Recover the amino acids of this structure.
């Protein structure tokens, strides 16, 4: 059974639960090593490989699939995702996810995962290869020689040894480039606001500001994602600040360099050479840079080695299968990780958490301004994020059809819901407990639940009244004065309405005080019956519940 059932998620990843239970279906829409499809099949997932489709053609078929495996060609836009009514996961066999509209995917409850390390060595090697290509004008020399020109005096190169390499971005790929460059006896400086001095020391590189890097580097190589902060980081102004005769390599993302300004800088000699693997518009079939002296290009080949493609294909297929079959979440961009080993242990907790959230949502409705989620005892040994996600999905699932574990934290933030997570390592009255406290204008209201036999969720406290109830199906939450004969009257009213009682759980604050009944019934409770029950003597509150 899949981990993210409708019941657990409150309605988000729900749309074709029937179908998912039988055999999930994945579409591979970009060229990928055949091992990806083989893994999906081995794991019992139906897979179609349909590449080279237009956005319209893709939109026409995407509704059939639970998973979409892509590289950088497929554009997972909001428009495409609107048609992806069954989609639960997008797997990027590679690093960059700028071809996926992450907020749109998150809003639709779709997990987006990538494979952050599978192609980093390969891409770093490509950057080094392009650095050599620029230093020795290899592409031009090759073309000239093969044209029979033998222009030995035309191609004077430069050595890399002792030159300064400026890294813009020193994450996974940048650090690998640094280690290779240090091996070539270059001096490596890096601009990366998130690089700690300790990490810089460990890498053997010098952390500098961007202007220092521009002024000092003989070679500049870019290794950042494309973000609002990095877009145009090598702008016309930045290029003007570079050391004259600098050589620039971009194996990261198009858009980091102002391409028109780069062409001018190449022509003026400010930049002696530039090698781009990535372009602002791809496929780049007609760049103004083409033909500019000192310009070298490759068609987004950074990750294109056999080794890297095998790595990312295997990894993405395993990750997506783990998610679709077991609920394991690895390398997700829009959701906390949850290993396939952890997933089964968390499953009953998430069911409990979702039900506690749903209970609060149904009883308190729009009064809830914030929630505090506490885990105690055995529950505190687990990854709390999925438990929090499940509470929020349950809570907001009472008024939203589209909320699920993936988008619940974002939706909660958008709605200004204050969410707190608290962990108590020590056991209290129960060996394991999840307590959810809602803050409302009228004060704090708290419900708690535990697991019987480590698997069966049970409510053990509702608003300070001890009960022991299984939450599920159709139920009634009734608050009444604790008076003799009330239960008989309640049973009679339900019986007269033709509603069969499945379970009956009682609790009270004090003898003769406020009493609580949680009654599970076999069918939905009609609104008229709720009115009728409200009119019974001593009744303070009646809320029909659905789980
Ligand atoms: N050409 C290709 O085929 C190819 C292959 C793989 C990856 N990539 C691209 O390479 C890039 C780097 O990948 P990675 O795996 O090293 O990513 P990463 O997340 O490990 O590293 C990115 C680094 O950029 C830094 N950074 C973020 N904002 C910055 C800013 N404003 N200024 C300077 N540094 C900043 C981060 O701190 C981080 O250290 C990504 O854009 C990825 O998509 C391209
Ligand atoms: O971000 C990446 O992993 C690279 O840009 C590789 O893209 P590709 O899978 O389309 O070659």
């Amino acid at each position: 059974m899949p981990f993210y059932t409708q019941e657990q998620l409150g309605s988000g990843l729900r749309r074709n639960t029937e179908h998912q239970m039988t055999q999930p279906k994945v579409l591979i829409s970009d060229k990928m090593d055949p091992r990806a499809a083989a893994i999906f099949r081995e794991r019992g997932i139906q897979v179609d490989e349909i590449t080279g489709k237009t956005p319209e053609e893709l939109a026409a078929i995407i509704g059939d699939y639970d998973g979409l495996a892509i590289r950088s060609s497929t554009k997972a836009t909001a428009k495409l995702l609107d048609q992806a009514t069954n989609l639960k996961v997008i797997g990027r066999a590679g690093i960059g996810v700028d071809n996926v509209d992450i907020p749109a995917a998150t809003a639709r409850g779709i997990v987006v995962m990538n494979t952050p390390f599978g192609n980093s060595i390969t891409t770093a090697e490509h950057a080094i290869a392009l650095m050599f290509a620029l230093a020795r004008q290899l592409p031009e020399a090759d073309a000239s020689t093969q044209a029979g020109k033998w222009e030995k005096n035309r191609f004077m190169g430069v050595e890399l040894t002792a030159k300064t390499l400026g890294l813009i971005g020193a994450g996974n790929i940048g650090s690998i480039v640094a280690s290779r460059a240090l091996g070539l006896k270059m001096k490596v400086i890096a601009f990366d606001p998130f690089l700690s001095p300790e990490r810089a020391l460990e890498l053997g590189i010098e952390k500098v500001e961007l202007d220092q890097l521009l002024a000092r580097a003989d070679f500049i190589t870019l290794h950042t994602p494309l973000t609002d902060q990095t877009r145009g980081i090598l702008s016309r102004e930045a290029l003007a600040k570079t050391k004259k005769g600098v050589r620039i390599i971009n194996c990261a993302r198009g858009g980091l360099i102002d391409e028109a300004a780069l062409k001018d800088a190449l022509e003026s000699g400010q930049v002696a050479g530039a090698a781009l693997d990535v372009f602002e518009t791809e496929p780049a079939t007609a760049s103004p840079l083409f033909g500019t002296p000192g310009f070298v290009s490759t068609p987004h080949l950074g990750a294109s080695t056999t080794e890297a493609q095998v790595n990312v294909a295997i990894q993405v297929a395993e990750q997506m299968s783990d998610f679709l079959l077991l609920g394991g979440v690895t390398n997700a961009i829009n959701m906390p990780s949850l290993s396939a080993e952890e997933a089964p242990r968390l499953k009953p907790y998430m069911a409990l958490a979702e039900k506690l959230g749903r209970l609060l949502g149904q009883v308190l409705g729009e009064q809830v301004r914030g929630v505090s989620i506490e885990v105690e005892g055995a529950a505190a040994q687990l990854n709390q994020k999925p438990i929090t996600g499940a509470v929020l999905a349950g809570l907001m699932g009472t008024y939203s059809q589209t909320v699920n574990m993936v988008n619940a934290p974002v939706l909660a933030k958008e709605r200004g819901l204050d969410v707190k997570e608290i962990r108590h390592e020590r056991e209290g009255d129960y060996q394991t407990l999840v307590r959810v406290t809602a803050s409302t204008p009228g004060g704090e209201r708290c419900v708690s639940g535990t697991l019987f036999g480590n698997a069966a969720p049970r409510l053990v406290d509702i608003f300070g009244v001890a009960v022991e109830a299984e939450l599920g199906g159709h139920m009634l939450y009734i608050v009444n004065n604790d008076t003799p004969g009330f239960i008989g009257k309640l049973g009679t009213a339900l019986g007269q309405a033709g509603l069969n009682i499945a379970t009956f759980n009682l609790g009270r604050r004090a003898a003769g005080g406020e009493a609580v009944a949680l009654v599970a019934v076999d069918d939905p409770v009609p609104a008229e019956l709720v009115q009728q029950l409200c009119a019974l003597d001593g009744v303070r509150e009646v809320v029909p519940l659905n789980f």
Residues 95-96, 116, 119-120, 123, 168-174, 191-194, 223-225, 227, 229-230, 251-253, 277-278, 300, 302-303 surround nicotinamide-adenine-dinucleotide (ligand 1) (CB under 6 Å). The CA atoms of residues 386 and 442 lie 28 Å apart. The first strand starts at residue 25 and ends at 28. The two ends are 19 Å apart (CA to CA).
